[in-house]
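Technical annex, item 7. During the second reporting period the consortium partners agreed on a shared format for inverse folding records so that results from different sites could be compared directly. Each record opens with the tokenized structure and is followed by the designed sequence. A conforming record, contributed by the partner at site C, is shown below for reference.
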């Protein structure tokens, strides 16, 4: 019996030091047994919040050239999913959409998982002008899965999120743009000592609530890590609720270890066991409204 190994094309940033973008996504996906093709959009010394960082942005043509070369190899049909994370500008975004379309043309079952990185609290909107319209008009209509944080969900919703009912309405407004599966992360409505991840899909609306860890400076890359973990578990189980539980439990374990050891970068390598066998500490609950 031949067992299919899922294949993911991960179009994200790359850093030499730290764990953001593909450095946060590729190792967990491969540890889960998923063949991962990293296509890097930048090559940086570290994430841009570090002092003295340096590096290069790849032009959008770089994405097109690599995809064209993979097409010549006739391997695009093997790709089961595409992840996109931080996008530097609209031109890069359009090149990524071109890649998604070529892969879906080669494999109609392939799905697109879009992390629409635009900002967060308290920084606000921190990406290039025009990317909100790009996500709303070009990316989300093609996406099967989308993983905004609460700030980004509010942008799509057009209103602030004050409670769980607002989160559900925001998810519905995002569904209307195209994605069948919406995960809203970092939901802070309600208790101040906990945080929620909310899933909205055909089966209903669910959430997992975890304690809020008090970092002096939260490590970067947790959103990239969560998106990769959710997609990985979804490809392996085809169960979005189980994927929500597994990915949330794993990332909380990684964040807990990072916090306990006082690390400034995610303790991903040190958490291989939690990636391979997600703890069963937090369970998903279904909303009844």
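Designed sequence (site C submission):
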């Amino acid at each position: 019996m031949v067992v299919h190994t899922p294949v993911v094309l991960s179009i994200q940033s790359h850093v030499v030091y730290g764990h953001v973008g593909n450095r946060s996504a590729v190792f967990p996906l491969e540890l889960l047994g998923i063949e991962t093709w990293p296509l890097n959009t930048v090559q940086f010394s570290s994430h841009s919040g570090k002092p003295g960082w340096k590096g290069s942005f790849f032009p959008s043509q770089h994405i097109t050239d690599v995809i064209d070369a993979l097409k010549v190899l006739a391997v695009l049909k093997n790709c089961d999913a595409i992840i996109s994370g931080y996008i530097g500008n609209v031109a890069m975004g359009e090149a990524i959409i071109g890649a998604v379309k070529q892969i879906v043309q080669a494999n109609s079952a392939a799905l697109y998982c879009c992390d629409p990185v635009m900002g967060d609290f308290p920084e606000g909107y921190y990406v290039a002008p025009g990317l909100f319209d790009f996500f709303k008009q070009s990316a989300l209509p093609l996406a099967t899965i989308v993983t905004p944080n609460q700030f980004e969900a509010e942008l799509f919703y057009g209103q602030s999120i004050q409670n769980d009912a607002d989160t559900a309405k925001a998810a519905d407004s995002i569904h209307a743009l195209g994605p069948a599966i919406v995960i809203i992360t970092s939901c802070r409505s309600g208790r101040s000592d906990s945080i929620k991840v909310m899933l909205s899909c055909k089966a209903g609306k669910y959430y997992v609530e975890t304690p809020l860890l008090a970092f002096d400076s939260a490590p970067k890359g947790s959103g990239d890590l969560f998106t990769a973990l959710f997609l990985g578990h979804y490809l392996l189980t085809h169960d979005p609720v189980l994927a929500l539980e597994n990915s949330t439990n794993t990332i909380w374990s990684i964040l807990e270890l990072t916090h306990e050891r006082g690390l400034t970068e995610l303790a991903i390598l040190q958490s291989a066991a939690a990636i391979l066998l997600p703890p069963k500490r937090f369970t998903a609950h279904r909303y009844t409204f």
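The longest strand covers residues 35-44. The chain has one domain: 7-286. All partners now use this format for quarterly exchanges.
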